[in-house]
Amino acid sequence: MIPKKLQDKLEARKADNTFRKLRQPHELIDFASNDYLGFSLSKEIFDHTHYYLEEAFIFQNGSRGSRLLTGNHKLYKDVEDLICKTHDCESALIFNSGYDANLGFFSSVPQRGDVVFYDEYIHASIRDGISMGHAQAYKFKHNDLDDLKQKCQFQRERISKDSEVYIATESVFSMDGDTPDLIAMAEFCKTNHFKLIVDEAHAVGVFGENGIGLTHSLGIDAAIFARIITFGKALGCHGAAILGSKQLADYLVNFSRPFIYTTALPPHSLMTIKSAYKELQQTHAIEKLHENINYFKEKVAEHQLQERFITSESAIQCCIIPGNDTVKKVSQDFYAHGFDVKPIVSPTVPKGQERLRFCIHSYNAEEEISKVLALLATFIK
Predict the structure, then answer these.
(1) Is 210 left (phi over 0), alpha (psi -120 to 50) or beta?
(2) Per-residue pLDDT averaged across 232-244, rounded?
(3) Is 207 left (phi over 0), alpha (psi -120 to 50) or beta?
(4) What pLDDT sits at residue 295?
(5) Residue 29, SS3 per DSSP
């Protein structure tokens, strides 16, 4: 038996209808996964990965250790060089996941006496990284640059002139699908010599030429201290990278504990990343994805559901349905009709902001989009 305190916490979750459990695989129509371009199921990416490994006589299942020990396979340099070229950055350092990358950055880079300002809806991995570090941290209202400016001014009067100030945001927020005014934020940071960090997890593969990302398409990469990109969403594989200067990469190799003390990705994972980037250069899936996003929004308007949805131009479209019980019931209704639409409940989002999170994909048919929204209209009216 686990300790009673832990049992009590589980029972509280059940009482609040917030108890999580793993579901078995299913064949429902997908409006839930982060596989925006369908790359995770791409036979071309799978075959190219397998072919390259055989041609290079790489028959290795694991990396055999961390990158600082035995795990720094030659493919790491190939893939990191490709990422640098693609994303126009000086250095790219691969981590095992987006969670590891954010944990590794925010726990080690901001120092004691420094200050981190982060969007109140920032991803849990960034919050966890900040909590493990020694810098002071303050949240600002979601996508509210005026509130950020006020908080920066208030705190700057109370901290040392030698302190570094870090501003953390996402280019596309995972729970809302919306975007901050990144150009204005970059200009604000540049003017004040603050260091801007942007998590591009839900933008890479979705925005920008060949899916390079949103910050690149806005022309503000040079104003960003660090970009975090992930490969487990639109690229359909696994891992993440921190993009920045060579000095930043050197620092992370020396002081980022999630990088130093974890077994490296195996060659197959690295080659899958490389194959996914190759596919990005030649796919029409990004164009089709945006056609589907626009069609989804048209159908939302047709059913007069705009007031329920958070404004978003991304692949993430969220319908607010307050109450854990209520939003779970609607999700179960979709399940019964053959659709996978996930409920996002509190405490993941604030109480009263529970929502259905529709993830749009390049492979969703218009008929599927039409039907899922027609069902939604009947479920919530």
Answers:
(1) left
(2) 98
(3) beta
(4) 98
(5) strand
